[in-house]
Protein: 3178_t:CDS:1
Amino acid sequence: MQSGEDILGLLIASDELLMEELFKHVQDYLFEKHICWIQQNFIFVLHTVFKLSSCKNLQEYCLGSICADPEPFITSKNFLLLDKNKDYKFNKKSDIYSVG
Structure:
């Protein structure tokens, strides 16, 4: 089995190469087989997928999970590695989140 990071890399490559069908299958596979990896690497995944407009499902999953339980995200040793030039907004009450 491939690592979550490898699968995320394939997702990015399939997006850049405009391979929509491959992108869909890779994203589904990532959710099915690597959900624990995504949860353990929210910062990395979040930083990566917000560069890609086609990754709405993954963006929404990450942000929804963070809004549901922000403590592991905020207390992560990698929290400070988030891009300081991006404004990540979370509104738990209305489940609205965005990046500016």
The two ends are 35 Å apart (CA to CA). The helical segments are 4-16, 20-33, 35-40, 42-49, 56-68, 71-74.
